[in-house]
Write a structure and sequence with these properties.
Blueprint (H helix, E strand, L loop, with lengths): L4 H38 L2 H35 L1 H10 L1 H23 L6 H30 L4 E2 L5 E2 L1 H5 L4 H30 L2 H35 L4 H8 L12 H20 L8 H27 L9 H6 L2 H6 L12 H27 L2
Antiparallel strand pairs: 1-2
Helix pairs in contact: 1-2, 1-5, 1-7, 1-11, 1-14, 2-3, 2-14, 4-5, 5-7, 7-8, 7-11, 8-10, 10-11
Amino acid sequence: MQAPLPISALLSLSFGVHIVLVNLDMAIATFIPLMEWLARKKDDDFLMERAKVLMRYYASTYAIAGVFGTAFTVMLLSFYPQFIGLAGHLTWVPFGLAILMIALRFLTIVLYWYLWDRSSQQIHLAVGGLMALSGYLIPFGFRAVFAFLNVPSGLHLEPKPYLDVVEALMNPTFLPLYLKSVFGALAAGSLMMVTVYVIRYEASESSLKERYLELVSRFANYGFASLALMMFFGAWYSVSLITTPYKFYNVFGFLIGKPGERDFGWLFIVKMILVLVQFIVLYQVFRPKELTETQISWAKIGGPVALTTVLVGEMLNMHSQLPYFVAQPEIVSSLPEIFRKALLTTNVNTLANLPELYAITAASLIPLLAAVAALFYLLLREK
């Protein structure tokens, strides 16, 4: 038995958009202070203006990502209050770290924008560095929770349920999942910048073409290094999932002729095809002296393909462990009934499981999705 389809669809949609924007947000928040530092070092007005323009888009991206993150949390709380109560109690330390970093993120975004040209260069760049750092500490907390849902390391039931944080951080799936996420975000962000700047390159006068070409090449270099590291840590994460056989066989069982109960090997193949396309895009624009029509066409699809890869990867990671919140059926079945029910996605809050509420929730997401589409249109097309 699986979770009702409308619930799975709504949660997948809200979480999918949230995680794609968060990945883009992490990368852009890294690129902005880096571009500012290079601009000040080289006294380059063109780079400085690009950093300021990127900051405007970054603030919008972060705001929309936060809205979808809140929507996902509210949906989880509505449909699975028992799970949220249990997870919140057990994993309050990593959750608390993530929430603390979110607050720091808001503060540094405001300060970084307000202090631009109003403070010393050193202070402004320090705030920018802190803004970037907070972006890496937010997923540090959340990925610790996701790793716990793979393997409940550090969980103790006596004398009452609690989580040993040190043991939890030693979870075999945590470090590779976190590092894969970080470099995956940098790769996706780099490829998105390649797409953005190749469109600027195509639309610019000859005097600016060379500058935009430099940016395309620079971000292609960043993207290649990040994507290669993402593949390395992704392979490590795949191996670490052997500790949770249910999920491992659902994803990779088809490779050894032993598909799991819910075979998601097809989605893994889709992800690998998308990664291959990213490498082809990066090869096309790695260090060009000029761009041909073919290279421009490849570069234009780089960003959308990279963000789609993030989405597919998260859906693969999420759905391959259903209908269990914790991907260890044998552990779930051994727990007291109150915990066992809380860890099953089939145990839906009956008060929220109404067709009318599905319709209202779905309708409320439409304007949010329209805002995301408008944001990306402006990011790609505004001169």
